[in-house]
Design brief:
The structure is a single chain. With 406 residues, this protein is of the alpha+beta class. The chain has one domain (75-305, 334-405): Cytochrome p450, CATH 1.10.630.10. 49% of the residues lie in helices and 8% in strands. The chain has 17 helices and ten strands. It has helices at residues 14-18, 21-30, 47-54, 82-89, 99-110, 113-118, 120-136, 142-147, 149-159, 169-177, 186-212, 218-224, 235-265, 268-276, 281-291, 323-326, 361-378, and strands spanning 34-36, 41-44, 59-60, 139-141, 297-302, 306-308, 311-313, 318-322, 383-384, 403-405. It has a five-stranded mixed sheet, with helices on both faces. Strands 4-10-9 form a three-stranded antiparallel sheet. Strands 6-7 form a two-stranded antiparallel sheet. Helix 7 (120-136) runs antiparallel to helix 9, helix 13 (235-265) packs across helix 15 and helix 13 (235-265) runs parallel beside helix 17 (361-378). The chain starts with 13 loop residues before the first helix and ends with a strand. The relative contact order is 0.18.
């Protein structure tokens, strides 16, 4: 085991953020687990270990179902952060069984494959309209003109949020997701708390309205969902679920879109192959999500000590599974640093694994396919107009914009 501080891993270094994959290769070469003091985390860079740990019930997204903060050797969050933690801690992504099992089962009753498949014509039509606007303007920012509005509109349509209110969703989401970065600042926390309060208040009113007049939307479905024991979602669970579906339902898609197209522009031979053969779109989506992973790191608490390659990681520690590194592991992927849109054996873990596997993965694939298809058909000569800037984030990897021209 090497200390990660002795390696090239530095999630605040702009050079690392521009291209973290060489540092990941060094981490993998130096061992299977590394302690990183700046974040007090154990970094796990290999695909086999990440995949196994995502399914290991000795780890958890939370520890509060078994321990108090004090028993676990952790400090409780500051009281002023409570609105964020109430919102975050009641979503199924940050719960463990039995609460996670109950909530996911109930959400699945409303978020069915049929519900998602029924959205496909709407997604394709909206993607076509957004791309048509980009083409009519002769180009623009692919991020703000196509990548952002598509998944935000889709999840808002699913939830039944009126069009007039949708402009608030992306800013709320961005402020809340700032807390998922490593060592967030007090300013970030303040913005997240404010967004948590405003978003929760808004959804509380919307839920009340849907109780009186149910519609054919996901909020109404969450209200109605129950099982044979007549378990139902509490109001807070509904609010947290709606926020989770919005945040997770568009952050990954937005960043996968711009990361993916930037990768295509830097690999013109692959882009040419895709333009010549649109049947490559499904495998291209999987490969682009592997090649430049939208979610680089996923955390787990150690509930019962685990051993990795002879290193014992004690209860109370935090493990950071490096998805971006796992997706470039030579033990699993041939020539992982190469973009290969024809790659068939592609067990990337960009959607996680185990009980927390992304419930919205089928929807994300529909959205990515719709926007890619529309861009290839309507803008076959699309090209990069200016080098983009990376967002100064590590965990959620994306661009500040992606200027394109026809």
């Amino acid at each position: 085991m090497a200390a990660a501080s002795d390696l090239a891993f530095d999630p605040w270094d702009p050079a690392f953020l521009a291209d973290p994959y060489p540092a990941y290769a060094e981490l993998r070469a130096r061992g299977r687990v590394h302690y990183y003091e700046p974040t007090d985390q154990w970094l796990v860079p290999h695909h086999a270990d990440v995949s196994a740990l995502l399914r290991d019930r000795r780890l958890g997204r939370t520890y509060q179902h078994r321990f108090t903060h004090e028993d676990f050797g952790r400090t409780a969050p500051p009281p002023e952060h409570e609105p964020f933690h109430v919102l975050n801690d009641h979503g199924m992504l940050d719960l463990e069984p039995p609460d996670h099992t109950r909530i996911r089962r109930l959400v699945s009753k409303a978020f069915t494959p049929r519900t998602v498949e029924r959205l496909k014509p709407y997604v394709q039509r909206l993607a076509g309209e957004l791309v048509a606007g980009l083409v009519e303007a002769g180009g623009g920012d692919l991020l703000t003109d196509v990548a952002e509005p598509l998944p935000v509109a889709v999840i808002a349509e699913m939830l039944g949020i009126p069009e007039a209110d949708r402009g608030q969703l992306r800013p709320w989401s961005a402020d809340i997701c700032g807390m998922y970065e490593l060592n967030p600042s007090q300013e970030t926390a303040t913005r997240a708390v404010r967004a948590s309060v405003e978003f929760s208040d808004y959804l509380r009113e919307l839920i009340a309205a849907r109780r009186k007049e149910p519609g054919d939307d996901l909020i109404s479905g969450l209200i109605a969902a129950h099982d044979e024991d007549d378990d139902r979602l509490t109001e807070q669970e509904m609010i947290s679920t709606a926020v989770l579906l919005l945040n997770a339902g568009h952050e990954a898609t937005v960043n996968a879109t711009v990361n993916g197209w930037y990768a295509l522009f830097r690999n013109p031979e692959q882009l040419s192959a895709l333009r010549a053969d649109h049947s490559l779109i499904p495998s291209a989506i999987e490969e682009l999500m592997r090649y430049d992973t939208p979610l680089q790191l996923f955390e787990r608490w150690v509930l019962d000590e685990v051993e990795i390659a002879g290193t014992t990681i004690p209860r109370g520690a935090e493990i950071a599974m490096l998805f971006g590194s796992a997706n470039h592991d030579r033990a699993v992927f041939d020539t992982p640093s190469a973009l290969d849109l024809t790659r068939r054996d592609n067990p990337h873990i960009s959607f996680s694994a185990g009980i927390h596997y992304c419930i919205g993965a089928p929807l994300a694939r529909i959205e990515l396919a719709a926007s890619m298809t529309a861009l290839l058909k309507q803008a076959p000569a699309l090209r990069l107009a200016a080098e983009p800037e990376r967002k100064p984030n590590f965990v959620i990897r994306g661009l500040s914009g992606l200027e394109v021209e026809l």
